[in-house]
Amino acid sequence: MKTATQKNESLTLLSELIEPLRVAMLTISNAEADLISKPMAPLEMDEDGAIWFFTDLHSDKVRHLNVVNLSFSDADNGTYVSISGRGETHSDRNKIQELWTAAAKPWFPNGVDSANLALLKIIPSSVEYWDAPNSKMMRMFAMAASVVSGKPVGLGKHEVLDNLA
Question: CB 18: neighbour CB atoms within 10 A?
């Protein structure tokens, strides 16, 4: 994923947390108010903190973008990120060309000229993350110490970021 320089500390931290993560789960609420999640490959986090993906204009998800959630996880490194926001679609062919990757070809066989190819832009409104950067062994030790003490001990950082504008 390409990551632009961010305009504030909260977005910079968000970009550092998600930049190495290759897949996000996008959760939407469908017409029946069911929560539906789909794996998505992020392409870019722009300078305003928006996260861009390729999408099919005929996909069900593009009709349910008023409230969305993106979740990223890296269990090996103890990093978990939940992003609440909204989404919008864009058909800017120059932006599609700029973000095009051969990895999208199985879903869009005609490349940037695929008829239903569009961009999905997720605009974050709040972020919650958990980050325990120590080794798995240290995280297991911290968990055991937490159980014994009855309170969280050395389990890492947990924060809510809401200064995203």
Answer: 23
